Amino acid sequence: MTRIVEKRKFCKSWKQNYGPLVKRKFDQNKKDNIEWNLVWNGDNGCEVKKGRKQYIVNLQDMICSCRSWQFTGLPCPHACYAIWNIGGDLDDYLDQCYHKNTYMKAYAYALHPINGARDQI
């Protein structure tokens, strides 16, 4: 019962629509994106390049060729770079399982206290 109450309090303290661990990941992605270059295809896709590394990002299908985005539901550094370049909101590209609403639904139901075992005489 205590854990459920603590998780609800924790979620209410979030400043974004996602938790602090996701926020930390996005902040790290910003640091990692300093030297990347972006080439748009004119639609929802782009190439993100850095030296000899190159990744294809499709924002509409939420796919990156590094496959991290598909596995985790979190936009990878390449996808974040593309999203930030178009002025998009990361919430729109984050899987629903990380959203505040989903977290609150998971901890919405309270456990009711019950009596302990009776002593046998």
TrEMBL record:
Coiled coil: none annotated. The keyword Secreted does not apply. PROSITE patterns: ZF_SWIM (PS50966). InterPro entries: Znf_PMZ, Znf_SWIM. Residues 55-87 form the SWIM-type domain. Keywords: Metal-binding, Zinc, Zinc-finger. The keyword ATP-binding does not apply. This is SWIM-type domain-containing protein. The lineage of its organism: Eukaryota, Viridiplantae, Streptophyta, Embryophyta, Tracheophyta.
